Queue: 4 jobs
Job 1
Amino acid sequence: MKIYRGWRRLLLCLPLVFLLPHLSSVFELHQSSNVEELPKKHNKKFDHLVLGPAAGQGLPNRLQCQGLKALHKAHFSSPSHIATSGETVSFVTVFAVYNYSSHSYDDKSSNLVTVGNASYGKAERSMAILHVFINFIQVSMPQSNVIILTDPASELSVGRNSVTVFPIQGEYSRDKLMLQRIKSYIAFLERRLKEYSERPDHVNHYIFTDSDVAVVDDLEPIFQKNHKFHLALTFRNNKNQPLNSGFIAVRGTTDGILRAKLFLQKVLEIYSSKFMKASRMLGDQLALAWFVKSHPSFDVKRFTRPQAFMDEIHGTSVLFLPCALYNWTPPEGAGQFHGMPLDVKVVHFKGSRKRLMLESWNFFSSSDSNISDMLCLVLKSGRTKYDF
């Protein structure tokens, strides 16, 4: 009986033997860490940057950070001189100006958000994001132009070099903005088709993006290395929403512009007939996915592998680019939890990460840090919701 009791005590103690060293190491790690931990409750928004561990540490071909310093530089290319070959790249974004009612400013201090030395009211925040969007393009691709599609009634004025405001009539309300965005893209491409006949010797490629993206590398190689595509889309390993509409590239030839216009017109038809319940958000992405998947020979399994590929979709040659490089978003996408690729080209600050976009630009522009160091800030801050 005593022997049985002895074995019983030994068996009860065994788990503690294995657990104690582990608990000790966790305690030491917690004590030695001088980085603020990520919040456990993700529904809380913060009015300051919250740094956490950088995902992907020790993994090959991922950004490695020590604090806010990159241990080795990302594979960024020098800005190209594509203009000398008679070709240019222009960025196109849809931007809407909303008038906030006076009663929303009863307590002005509660509406102010401070980033660095600047404070922004509710009406100025989207303009601040737009200017940072332009800033990143002018650093990474200084010879590129920015074209802003907007409501003619908004009387938008940006006052920046190489930036053009392009009014297009439409319905720019919040509930219809995603639907209007596709309509504006189509109207813009139709206008460009007419202008192209007047200047056939000049090729202007177009990249349609959301205004909350940071272009951190030269994107001209998309057009130089892939000569056969008409339209380029970004994809991710997501069953219901594999395509993200925040980045669409169009080859600036007659055929490219025409095919891209016809493609988007089909997407618009599907959007209007099948996904109007999602007109405020996601409807365009659902319509994109439906149209691509409806092609009989398309293999949806290709979305699970993060390699670029080309396919013909209903007469349009489409280049599919991985979001991990051309539309990287913290913390969304399977690639995020494996870190940030060294050769990332575009960072998309969706949703609650708008403050992080401004903080990243301030960090880059007000210090001797480079783009790689700035990406460490993004990587370590990207899983937090902010107040912007």
Note: The radius of gyration is 24 Å.
Job 2
Amino acid sequence: MKWISVVLTLVVTTHYIDLCAGILGNHFWKIQRLVHERRVNDLRGILPGESVCELFITQPLDHFDRLSQEAGETFKQRLFVNDQFYEAHKGPVFLYIQGEGTLSPVSAKSGFPAELAKTVGALIVAAEHRFYGASINDDGLKLDSLRHLSSQQALADLAEVHSFISQRYNLSQDHPWVSFGGSYAGALSAWFRVKYPHLVIGALASSAPVRALTNFEGYNDVVAASLESSIVGGTEECMTQIQQAFIQIDALLKLGNHTLLEGYFSSCEPVIDPLDQLTFVSNLASIIQGLVQYNNEVPGLDIDGICGIMQVTSDPLRNLASLNTQIMKNSNISCVNNSYAEMVKMIGNTTVDRNAEGPGMRQWIWQTCTQFGYYQTCDAKTNCPFSRLIDLPSQTKLCSDFFSISPQDIPKFVSFTNEYYGGDTPHGNKIIFSNGSIDPWHKLGVLTDLNPSEQAVFIKGTAHCNDLRSSNSKDPPQLTAARKKISSIIMDWLKEASVSEVI
């Protein structure tokens, strides 16, 4: 029997985490940074750095335009390769796909894939997404260049990575690959299996929003339900307190009493302009959205912690102000920047900094405008606990302001994405769709088996991409059981592939 070489593609375990909540919510990005820093600190001193090397592969800027390729239009895509566990000539290869942020070498060292790599002697290859981190040309953030940023181009990049790694490590085309991914890259993982079935024999899609949706009202519906869920320390009173706080905020803004709010919530500047008011309420909402999406990732600031703070007094506004103060303390800031103009300046910046960490906001907004939507709104017909100022027009405004994309065109782009990939009923096989009940993104995922080989793993009480993290003694039993089930399915795929190879 020949040893099979396997590539597991995944995302979102230790680097900056994918998929933001409201575009205007700066606190959400701060929470992502806190989660990242905590994960890196937990791993510091445990994982040997010398086992990871950095590589760059030359990719066509446009895989589907031969004239562009003939003209030599390319970019360099960054990879990190970890050979710590690799058993040459017989070990599998795990390919880690990065989503909409900077790739860290830690991504090739830890999490569920690393645990599996240690078990099977795998080589781990982490691939950065085009136009993020260091995988971008000097003019990559300019509008004319952004037309080359799409999920279709990213999948074609993976096909080239497959070829590059196969040649570098002397792997034949007969060696089966398996893709893993989480969040946006979880969708990429599923789509890679659907669109490139000759390259991957199976896929794990964790917390994957495979259904694109312009007005994603369901995100905040799940946030509300999670805040009431007793399994994670939520209560009905907690959700009511948050809802009442935002009702008071909307009323005060309507009355023009912004001075009280500026003092309560430590705003760096007045929130008189309607767009600054929108940024203000979005920042406050993003605190709760971020802490729910990454529940149990920020010590002391999880759903249980939110509800503890929101029930200290009978004044919802004062309680929300206390939560805001705690986030400011954790983020080491003295006031909150609620300036829409400053946010616009940051997103409008087209200067590339390859050493910058974190998510690429300009790039991700482009992707939402041109492919996915994913706008988390508080339109009137929902049970959203946040401000009603956070509506669809406010979320799509940036598409027209920065990219001259009419908001009326976005639903057409979203519809094409679903037609191209199949939405939440992709036609494929050997795909695992894993989701947590607390994660708001599960609303756009696959929650029940589509067929015997497209299986759903739904994990009660868990948040965004929890199954892709390293196992922990504090993990709830349902999460441990889910990882075991996922591992078992993958191992069955590999056994089937090895039998087929012998035959």
Note: Residues 38 and 298 are 8 Å apart (CA to CA).
Job 3
Amino acid sequence: MLEEWLSEPNFASISGQLEELYMTHSRKDMNETLTDILLSACVTPAMMPDRLLMEHVFLVSILHYTVGLEVGAHFLEAVVKKFDEVHRSGSEGKVCNNLIALLAHLYNFHVVHSVLIFEILKILLDSFTEKDIEIILFLLKNVGFSLRKDDALALKELISEAQKKAGMNKELVDQSRVRFMLETMLALKNNDMRKIPGYDPEPVERLRKLQRSMLHNNGGGKEAQLHVTFENILNADQTGRWWIVGSSWSGTPMISNADSISQLKLPGGKVSSKILELARKQRMNTDIRRTIFCVMMTSEDFLEAFENLLRLGLKDHQEREIVHVLIDCCLQEKTFNAFYAILGDKFCNYDRRFQMTFQFSMWDKFRELENLSDTAFSNLGDLLAHLLKKKSLSLSVFKVIEFSELDKPKVRLLRHILRKLLMETGPEELAAIFGRISGIPKLGLLCEGLKLFISHFLLKNSHGSSEEVSLLKEQANVAEKALQAKDSKLKL
């Protein structure tokens, strides 16, 4: 079981193994499985040790930043919906306490924004039962000073509301737990940690420090916090999960009439209803996706599209949606449109984070090949071949493919891409493309797999004129030598 071997010394290896599983399995299945395991371990009728809950949420936070926001978002949604269900039912036991502890630590480790925690505190203040007071105390003790730091005014208003609520009922004021809650709130208001018995920030701070060291090379920062409300989460099935970039969506349309559609604005002004109708048909189902789509469709050329997309000022996690929309549009064209390939190349050269998003998106597409139409399949191959020729992506994009277990769709895609590279690239450029992955120990199997693939699937029974066959063999020889070049130097 996960809880039996999850501990601070193991975090790096466990998160690394889970990242690999995310790369080789459906993200939807992984999110559901991970959430089920964590909830069954953490949400029980008995109060779970805070250290155990903290470490499980810490793992979620690492995957949230390294794998994608949908990991934390999926877990958060499950916890919030369960909390709402349990809180409404007024059930006994510590299930509600455990769920609140999970939410508190999701905030502690920057998965969710303080706006959700403030909303939950207000919900608890509205009902203000003995159980609610107990949970409010727990929240304030665990995240009160962080809330004060994030939004002192909102905390001040919350404290005033709690004091009024308690003052309205003299019996409540006389209860020791209520008095303790009010004293805790006063200590928070005065920023006096000494007045809160048992307050110990050290365990959270230690894990935050570990989190920073593990995510040292990840650029997400607090930008990746989910700024989502309680109501957003409860209504996600009806209104969509806009807080997950590139998420799947189901439910009633988020924009349902021409008046609301016409309000969408772009850097150059409003867009026509015709373009917005096209966006709807292309399943651009969030404001970000629609805006990106409309920018692409209304730009004169790739340079104007590139500049206008940058002017949107999208945050780091929102920027990834540019790549998702670009690939979706490219695959839906009736014939390959080089506009998307050139625009993609421009973004990859602009910042390496776009290269990484393209790579992850391509890995997702590799798992869906059998579901693509012939046109989409061909467009995907042409897009990837272009990005490889321009060195926007490296052949390492194929490292997730098991060459010993190739199915027909993967053979077809690799044959399409590699043949284009060999036949449409000069010898020097070709050597540079294949040479990029040679001599790297982790890519040794990929190099061998590519050599065998070219030999077995491209050169054997190759079709075309004698000149084409001859050129293919010459170029294959160039590629093979490039794959071996650095290996030979290393051996020397």
Note: The domain at 2-236 is CATH 1.25.40.180 (Serine Threonine Protein Phosphatase 5, Tetratricopeptide repeat).
Job 4
Amino acid sequence: MRKIDSMLSEQKKKLLRRVNMSAQHQEALHIFPKMTADPVESGVVKVHLGGEGYNRKTLNQIKRSIPKQQDMKLSIDIFRLYSLYHSLHHYKYHTFLHCKKETDNIEQAAEDPGQEEVVQQCMANQGWLESLFSSFMELLTISAKT
């Protein structure tokens, strides 16, 4: 996991060298794990940042209140860089959510399967593992191209 974290951090640093991101925008991208965008006018999008805050070390949702959802208007080119930065920053959390969904599905399908059985079923699901790996490789490939 440390290796993945260092790869993600390195890609984020490279992106920050390419885009002049304000500290306020960077903080908003760090706080909110969900990002959506709607076209406003030609070449401009309105970006919506929201979602529940979480602890980056434990990945558990935090109890304290976080600032209200934020919106910002960005050019499409800057939005692409912000979106990539956001994906890199929250990659581990979103992967955790995918894993939690998979384990919840396994637990619902069987009566009290036990932790070890759940892990074994996850590891035996080759298609699911490949999709996780593919999404990681796709993220790294996109960030390497920018």
Note: Residues 2-145 form one domain.
